[in-house]
Design goal:
The protein is an all-beta fold. Helices cover 2% and strands 68% of the residues. It contains two helices and 25 strands. The strands form three sheets. The protein has a 20-stranded antiparallel sheet that branches. A three-stranded antiparallel sheet has the order 3-24-23. It has a two-stranded antiparallel ribbon with strand order 14-15. The radius of gyration is 26 Å and the shape is globular.
Length: 467
Amino acid sequence: MRGNDYNRYNGLIKWYTGDEDNFLSLTALFHTGEWNSSDQIPLRAVESGLLDEYGAIDDTTGGDTERHSLSFKSKRTEGDWVFRTEAWVGHYALDLFSNFTYFTDPVNGDQFEQEEERIFAGLNIAADWSHGLGSLESRSTLGFQTQHDWIDDIGLYTTNARVRNGVTNVDDVYQGSYGIYFENETRLTDWARLILGARGDFFHFDVESGDNPADTSDDWDAIFSPKAGLVLGPWNETEFYLNAGMGFHSNDARGVTAAIDPVDALVRTRGAEVGMRTRAIEGVSASIGLWWLDSDSEFVYVGDEGTTEAGPASERYGVEASIYWRPHECFTFDAEYAWSYAQADVGPGEFSAIDNSVPHMASAGVTIGGDYGWFGSLRGRYFSRRPLLGESSKTKSRESIQVNGRVGYRWENLEVSLDVLNILDREDRDIEYFYESQLPGEAAPVEGIHYHPAEPRQIRANVTYRW
């Protein structure tokens, strides 16, 4: 068994003044950490006795990271107008060593290093105001958003025991985005509200390649996304809703500016949702919704190769339901369930399940206790089996059931508690993949399941002091 030797330090300083309608706040965050990691391991190595379930083929993987940020928030209310501002700036660095295929290179091994350091900054500004639309009550929102990332020497290197022996790629990347959005909600009748919205987004990508001058380039793209929603009710504390609209996802800047097989900067998505929410029963809040999401393409950045691959179009749909019950101020029960199906368009009239898409998910929990005195909670989480390689039933993951509990005592400023994680001590798997790898002594790569085990039953003590 290999220890993670995880060392982490977190810090938070927050200043706040004002009330719910008018306030200013400043928040400073600090995080640093370093660790060893076992990554996922091949099932065949565990079954043969070559490896302990908590061991590692390569015992030099791991990494370190740090993140520092300063953020500002404000809200100002003047009559029917509300002005909101949020701004942030920060620094982030990561140095990560991984090895997923082990020894397809029998001499040097397959370990690789991903390194990056970036400065990021952003700004959100929005104004809400109430107004009439003819004889109808109406409220509108106008906003502006921008995000910028300056990334120096984002690199991918081949390594052995964390010592570099080759360079796959090294780039300097800038990515900036600007978005303007508008939303209007109008009450058509006592039982009907119409929500209309739209946003326009502009992205700029600039890449300076340190290993392939042909990939040094810049590009930009813009996209318009309309949205609409209709809410009917409430009747007996119950309302129905319908939402539909267009969206997008952006792709890795290095794929956008690549000289060979560049990918689209922005990819169109379309979605819709219909559902119901109710509080018809006292103390109970429940909802159910059916949703659909369609994407023109799913591009994937392949980290161990330093390339961006264009995937096929995809379609997803599903159902989500939740219920929250609070019969007493010291007792709460909640439960959530989701079913979804994801398929990729792999050819004319041909579809295949998307790898690692989980069809069934559920969670539930009970919380007991008030602001002071004894308190406790019990929570469970369930993930069903999922496809690891298309539709094949032979390459599906295990199901996962995790149950965690907490008990503690609260004073005015002090809280002590005891957590029990994985109460059932199940041998679940946090992640599972199906791909080729090569172990020491194997003449060629072998296909199989690779996984990372869930942690066994643990007990943790916590002490929290507030002032």
